[in-house]
Amino acid sequence: MKNVLVIGSPNSGKTLLFNRLTGLKQKVANFPGVTVSTHAGTASFDSSLQMVDFPGVYSLHAISGEEEVAVRAFQRAITNVAHTKAVLCVLDATRLEKGLFFALQVREACIAVGLPVVVACNMVDILEKHQLTLDLDGMQRELGVPVIGVSAKSGLGVERLQQVLSSHSLTIPEADPNLLARDEGWERNRAEQLAHAYGPKGDLLLKTHSRLDDFFLHSVTGGFAFFAIMFSLFQAIFTWAAPMMDAVEGVLGWAAEGVVPLISHAIAADFVRDAIFGGVGAFLVFVPQIFVLTLVVGTLEDSGYLARAAVICHRPLNAFGLTGKSFVPMLSGVACAIPAIYAARTIESPRKRWLTYMAIPLMPCSARLPVYALLIAAFIPNDTIAGGLLGLQGLAMFGIYLFGIVTALLVTAVISRATPDADQDVPFVLEMPPYRIPSWQSILRGAVERAGYFVRKAGPVIFWITMLIWFLGYFPNQGQDLSQSYLATAGRLIEPVFQPLGLDWKYGIAILASFVAREVFVGTLGTLYGIEDATENVVSLATRVQESGLPLASGVALLVFFAVAAQCVSTLATLYREGGSAKLPLQLLFGYGFLSYALAWCAYALLI
To answer: Scanning 83, 235, 271, 272, which has the fewest C-beta atoms within 10 Å of its C-beta?
Structure first.
């Protein structure tokens, strides 16, 4: 099997084209810092070819840590000529000069090692929509390599590209014998000449983007738009996800009613009802909210808005010791902290990268979402205000997300002012990707994958912990009295720690279990209430919490605690790998642990 190396600049649609050529379900993002690893897959049109997708880079002369990793990987790969058939260089046809500058570098690198090159000019559908054209034949003559116009989004030209990649007649481009030296200045001048000669004539696309930027980057309208978009995101978590959550809860309840009576062994029946449906099932009810969150964020990514949001946030973030580029990993942290930490590689300043690392664990990640959703559903009525436009539960979700973000900013502000700054100021430079209509198929697929990945990642952990919790809570009296179980005995030892927050031993056990993974809190609590109230609905955990007598002050204290505590072992391990030291992870574990408890106690004292 031969490799085809796929490389291109960020925002060129490279990964979307890779997905179309392989059929792989891979997330697409249009801002720097998301795609940080190499992916491979067998070509769907030719089983003898393996497509290898490299991270997007702007130049083979790396200017950031992330680009350096990607460029080194690509340079190593092209030296393996025996196992490589060709290099596929993907350009954005709407920004031809920038793409040709990179393509010229790739062409020269391939000539040096003796590899064929194929250039794919992506997004030709956008040009056709605006009645603009490319002279593909002219570029092919000038570059001496096949140049194919494609649309990764619609599939236009992809069949022709597949035919070229499968062809046995690909040749190595020839170097110009009359040219003695090629430097970056020559490459830029040559790219400008080619774009002017063979690229689309007119600045229609630039004018369209400029008009939109006049609105979204305006100091007044841009700020209002940013706030409205972020607010709508959190409202959507409840409003859009509610029907799906009801459907999942209904299916689980129907399954429990059908499965449990069929189990003749009493202990096995109790285990399936209390641990499987009561614990794991209670967690699955909240997975649709993770799907909706990923769907909305993916839409913002694919539309080109996130880079504008980073520009809007640069000045306010700079006041807290961060940079506009911190916005991208921080917003990525709303989905998961681990890719957010990798995304911080694009921040050139080591100090601002370090401060961003400190902010990311405070971002309200999707693992916290089931906990937030449970407590909000239990304590906040499902009422609406403003003529039904705003839901109280959505407002509460927005408030707790805002609390986590504000806490992160305050922490970085205090630390940035309390520690010396040895870095020189690094200019804030960020490419503005073009505005695009999102690729809904890709976004939906990515949202489904993200929700599925979350279930696969969290499911086994929740299963084993809920099984342990069920065993300790069920014995020695077969679930007749939870207060006399092994678990209750252990829980009373730690109960004094959580009593100042108005929480009993059951919540203490759930909190301790959640230090493995935050979402375990829901499964653990579901198992405990399942054992205690075996005759009740096996899924509706929010109703059980609501009827347990837990005061509102304790519910708010729990929300505050989970918003701040660093309870994710995977996040701490990733910080250790990225930083090469255990110092920062340990500081965050104990520092945020103390801070979360103190803030939770203050919230409880104010509301009780």
So the answer is: 83
